[in-house]
Amino acid sequence: MSRIKNLVGMVLLLLVVLFAFSACSKQPAEKSQETPKSKVTLTVSAAASLKDAMDELKDIYAEETPDVNVTCTYASSGSLQKQIENGAGVDVFLSAANKQMDALEDKELLEDGTRKTLLGNDLVLVIPEDSSLVSSFEDLTKDTVKQIALGEPGTVPAGQYAEETFTKMNILDKIKTKAVYGKDVKEVLTWVETGNVDAGVVYLSDAITSQKVKQVAKAPEDSHKPIVYPASVIKASKHKEEAKAFLEFLSGAKAKSVFEKYGFKLLEDSQSKSAV
Question: Architecture of domain 123-223 in CATH?
Fold first, then answer.
């Protein structure tokens, strides 16, 4: 009888051990099902003039799409173009002119069907808040005006638009002798804010963000090529679907209100290309 009890006890003990082992073996599988989805990081290269608007928009997008983290790099459009051509890990590019986007498209570096003309802007002449030295573009030719800040025309679209305006007004030769060139429009704006120059030419979207400068003139629209901001997903992006979704967000109603607050105009044209 005792042998039978012992045998029953051993069987029960074995069953307990097997049950415990089975329960432990299921835990990793259950944990793997609970593993959260990995967060995608999108890298956006944007023209420096977009910084204020894009900083606000990426925060809004983070609240709406918590599984996507957007990081932005700001510089002149020409510099960003070169970085992409050299293989920088960029998912979305926002340029301040068609010229840089055209160059990337010609080299087949854009994702097909994603390029769109997103925004428009205006070109304005600004001076330090406490200055009254100039009130028009023509005043820049006065002997009392010593230094004028412009974006470097070869890489900064605002600088190119400014030179087109001066050419239209037949004052470019006089302006060039006074010009100092910044690496992007934010640097140009800073020079005017600090009084290191007498005047500068920036976008309206830059001027309205500063309390240290005042706008004295807006360049006539027919004095330069249209100011447009094309955007596109980059072909080498490893997160194309997420990049397309973010680009769609930038075309939506919430983004429109933010862009307009900073002086931009949201455009409807989705496939514009011109020889800027």
Answer: 3-Layer(aba) Sandwich (3.40)
